[in-house]
Design a protein that fits this description.
This protein is α+β, with helices and mostly antiparallel strands and about 90 residues long. Helices cover about 30% and strands about 30% of the residues. It has helices at about 10-25, 70-85; strands spanning about 5-10, 35-40, 40-50, 55-60, 90. The longest helix has 15 residues, at about 70-85. The model has no long low-confidence stretch (mean pLDDT about 90).
Amino acid sequence: MANSATYTGITPDLYNQLRDKLGAAGIELAGNSGRVSKQGVTADYAYEEASQTLQINNVQVSFPASMMFSPDKIIQKINEAVRGAGGQVA
């Protein structure tokens, strides 16, 4: 079960696009690093502008989100958003 992922090729513009896309899905990324927690989904994230990498770590899913999602499914959704915006899954 995957509960972390690293993304490369994440320019500042791309990171802002991802923040918008993930925000529309209820996952708010405030700043370049932190922890998100929304409706039973929690994760740590860290964006490094110099290396153009984004790391998502410690994805956990509890009730009520666990009724529909697993950590794998959350990572898959983030992977789709990153690829759709032009980034790469490392």
